[in-house]
Amino acid sequence: MGMVDEVIADARTRTGLTDLGPDSFHEGLDALLTGAVAAGTFNELGMAVLRDQVSGLLVIRLEVEDWYRRHPEIDEQEILPPLFGLGLPRTGSTALSFLLGEDPRFRSLLAWESGAPTPPPDPATHDTDPRIAAAAANMALIDEMAPKFKSMLPTSPTGPTECLQILALDFRSPMFGALGDNRHYEDWMAGCAMVSAYRYHERVLKLLQWRFPTRPWSLKSPAHMDTIDALLEVYPEARFVMTHRDVAQAIPSVVSLLDATSEYLRTGPLAADFAANQAAYWERSLRKTLAYRDAGHEDRFHDIGFAEMRPDPLPAMARLYEWLGTELTAEVAGRMQAWWEANPAEKQGIHDYSPEQYGIDLDELRAQFAFYNDRFATVAPTD
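The chain above was modelled as a monomer; its predicted structure follows.
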């Protein structure tokens, strides 16, 4: 029995369930595990963590399908046109998602829900669900194993998170890149069809909102830029808020983040071309999204610069709400301000790194991304 069959059998044994839904997940699962073994970059702990994560995702998928089997009316849920946050990583999109999460008129994908969407949350226990404590314990473990990570991103079990774990239920997600360098899987991802992943993403959102009044979702992930065509096939009325920052700040920062998340899971230092590989991925992603904007869809995007959010995000949020056609009430503005003041950028320490330690030449990087920096110079000025 191969590794793919083993993890599937393990998940079925753990749950007593057999139906994994559409078979679209199988190809990505095979590419992920085959690539991880072939790469030779995962240490023993790294392979164990990957296998455990894969098994957990399969368990969730089995449970999602079981809920749909028992309650087919879930599929009748309407997903209102969502707002997607995207842009380069390390551009303020996470802080923006937390600010939007302070508005109860939006439904955010919360970290604990993303990690354990079954059983579907209940309004009566949504704020006290035991899965919140489990998610907090998992975050504490990550902080212990990768202590640099908590200085890089605001995280909370009850706060918004990216869509990556939901997309990973179809095993078509850049999420796995946080565990280690798996070029086989990355190459497969670059050419795979992503619509099935977004179909399953929609399936999970329907499950999560089933017991709640319908609200528009506020979602985010920089990775949506690379798969925007598939996203729009599933969410044709989506709108986008795009955050911006000088690439000379954004790209080295995301390389440093991935270095920190995979440091304890890999056999040695990052590959010499790791930063260049990341830059190529984000260049491709930006070009795809900008091509869509230029094809007559500019009105579906609102731009916010990293510098606009500091030191006071409320003027930028007011402009966003005006574009959305939604009133930024005094109550919501007050909640946003309180979150901002309680979560300064340096709250968990200083994110200390240098481009040079990853072999990044900032002049070359800016030349590579001149198409982007020049276009958004007013909202993302170079330093």
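Strands lie at 83-87, 107-108, 217-220, 239-244, 301-305.
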